Amino acid sequence: MISNAADISNLARVSFSNSSLPERDTRHMHASTYGARYYRESIPKYTFPKTSIPAKVAYQLVHDEITLDGLPEQNMASFVTTWMEPEGLKLINESLNKNLADVDQYPQTREIHQRCVSMLADIFNAPNARRRSSSAAPAEGAKEIEKGEAGDDDDDDVVYEPVSVGTSTIGSSEAFMLAGLALKFNWRNRMTKLGKPTDKPNLVLGHNAQVALEKFCRYFDVEPRFVDVTQDTNFILSPKKAMELIDENTIGVVAILGSTYTGAFEPVEELDRMLHELHEKKGWYVPIHVDAASGGFIAPFLFPDLKWDFRLEMVRSINVSGHKYGLAMPGIGWVLFKDRADLAEELVFHIAYLGGDMPTYSLNFSRNASSVIAQYYSFLRLGFEGYKDIMFTCQRNALLLEECLRRMDHWNIWSDASCSLPVVAFSLKWGKDGGDYDDYDVSHKLRQKNWIVPAYTMPPASQEITLLRIVVRESHSVDLIEHLVLDLEWACMELAKERAKLRHKFIEEGMKAARIADAKAKEEEAKLTEKFPHAAAAAGVGAASSGPNPSSSSSIMDDDGHGPSAPTLSRRGDERGPPAHDHLVDFGGDQAHGTYNKVC
Question: What share of the chain has pLDDT > 90, as a percent?
Answer without folding.
Answer: 62
